[in-house]
Write a structure and sequence with these properties.
Layout: E1 7-14, E2 17-24, E3 27-31, E4 33-37, H1 48-53, E5 59-62, H2 63-68, H3 72-77, H4 81-85, E6 91-94, H5 97-102, E7 107-109, E8 114-117, E9 124-127, H6 129-139, E10 143-145, H7 157-179, E11 188-190, E12 192-193, H8 199-212, E13 218-220, H9 229-242, E14 249-251, H10 257-265, E15 270-273, H11 275-280, E16 284-287, E17 290-293, H12 313-317, H13 320-328, H14 332-359, H15 363-377
Parallel strand pairs: 4-5, 4-15, 5-6, 6-10, 10-11, 12-13, 13-14, 14-15
Antiparallel strand pairs: 1-2, 2-3, 7-8, 8-9, 16-17
Helix pairs in contact: 6-7, 7-8, 8-9, 10-14, 10-15, 13-14, 14-15
Length: about 375
Amino acid sequence: MTVPGFGFSIHATAGAARAGVFRTPHGGVPTPAFMAVGTLATVKTLDPVELHAIGATMILANTYHLHLRPGEDVVRALGGLHRFMQWDGPLLTDSGGFQVFSLETMRRVTEDGVEFRSHVDGSLRFFTPERVIQIQRDLGADVIMQLDPVIPGQSDLATARDASERSVRWLVRARNAWEEGTAPCHQALFPIVQGGIHAQLRREAARAISDVGDWVGYAIGGLSVGEAKGDMYAMIEGANDALPHDRPRYLMGVGFPEDLVQGIRRGVDLFDCVAPTRMGRTGTAFTSEGRINVRNAQWRLDPRPLDQRCECSTCRRFSRAYLRHLFVAGEVLGLRLLSLHNVHFLVSLARDARAAIESGGGTFDGWSHDWLGRYHSGPTSAP
């Protein structure tokens, strides 16, 4: 499906890893790239100006949460999501499927869609593939996602097959709704490859999705939901083999540092994850030698930055001792500084990987092995 304003070009490769640019109506995204998550039209505690300053190029918002509040009608009336949140770069909205299926006892799944109760006010809502497309049309992000059934990572073959095949059927309905829109469409719809930890199902889903249409990009979903790391990496490898090599691949909801590097090694171009801001708000920071928790008493007199290799403003200006003080004292600045550091850490990690890929001569292979070895062997590493 050709959509004006979108394109993807690959400039360099290193095995399955690729360095390229994903072009959107709101600008280009050098890949691989980490997308910060702005669930409710805000990356928690951070200003869009700060996100631009650390090199963030594309961010994500959530259809489920924005539908509940303030409502897509409000966002549309105020000029769309870009204007509403004052972000002039590329935006992606996910379908809200993960959030709806996480409600468990508060939702009921049928072939038509998902009936659920709002976690905000208990009101009864109904998401269909068509309704989710309309909500995302109103929100106005550059990239929108189909509604898909999400299942636990260790689901058996029968459960995974049912969800994967339903996801393809819902994709057909989502595509039809996307094509039938009355207004000019400047959004790209990404399909989602499901299949749990069953490689054959993943291959079947990729083929079925390709039969439905020729897509601007492809998403890999249903991972990092309880399965073992080895299983997740194996499914990413399978997707790399099954999906078109000339389109961007988006690995949904995966973005811990080691997973980002492993994903890039296996051909992933785009990542997102709530972890950097969620962990930052609880005092946990990513560093090149593993994670640390600044609340720990051992940092009380430590004058060092969080990470001596990091160039973010938090690390350039503040000590571990000061950051610990902020968290112990309950000061909001601590949450902001750690969130800023963690997002910068992942944005710059993707940027460093891209530079290693572009350098050629086996640089990326050596860089990734060295980086993973240092990250996992650091004295402050955490599981």
